[in-house]
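User: Sequence in, structure out. Go.
Assistant: Echoing your sequence, followed by the structure tokens.
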Amino acid sequence: MISVIVPVYNVEEYIEECLDSIKNQTFTDFEVILVNDGSTDNSQAICELYCDQDSRFSLINQENKGQSIARNIGVAESKGKFIVFIDSDDIVRVDLLDQLMNYMSDEIDIVECDKTEDIQYLNEKRKDIQVKEFDSNEALYKCFNHVVSWSPVAKLYRREIVEKIPFLENLIYEDLYTGIVSLKYINKMRKIDYIGYYYRYHTSSTMNQKYSEKNLDIFKIGEKLLEEFREDNWLPYVGNMLFLVGIGHFKKYQIKVEHQYYQLYIDAINKYVEIAKKSPDIFSSSKLLRWYSYSPKYFFSLYYPLYLKYLFIRKKWKL
């Protein structure tokens, strides 16, 4: 059986689409654990309706404690041999669970599919599915190079992996830690080029909210990752990844000199750069890392904006 864990918080506008896409799965041996994280809108009533209509759905209500705690509680209450996480404002393809299970086997701990932010791709006629298989080291390498995702959604987990690496509680960006560290403990995983998950991009998402002190959690996550990999050959990869995350936050939230946490960001980015530079291979392969190392003063005002413009133009040419 698959346990589908769905944290719910103030999503009355989207949750019926999400739950319908789960309810109508072609694979039917599943349970759905809805964890209502203190919603103040009509989300709880909608969840109760689905539980009344379908015995596979159950609801846990709690005070608002955050998504990571909701996910952990859902896991603790679930019974399935396998676990899937779905966010309550997203939609999954009708055969998602079927396809993920098709590629699960005794030696595999995670099966990952592709996700999209354009819903039209969710319903495209499926082509022949290509499968790539990675052991733990290969999966980590692919994760640091953005081939394997650290997000918990669009994946089928063997239960033991989820229980071994629970979500960090009371922190945002916890996916970053859990998604990467879990790959250290797998035997093998499979990545399939099948789009089975629609991620709804909207302004209430964590990454689209205005800057708050909670954004500093990214540095707590960074320290935990550095600690986890401190005696490991992967440490420079972690440093480079945190460098990229750091500069992304720096630009997104417009951390300028007058910002109260400006120096904290600069110090953290410099630390990540020095860690990443310990690997000549990473340094030589990363343009952004080299550009920052050569000229930190002009990186954010000149090089990085030009790089983003280049990526935008290249994306338009591909469309």
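User: And one key feature?
Assistant: The chain has two domains: 2-198, 210-318.
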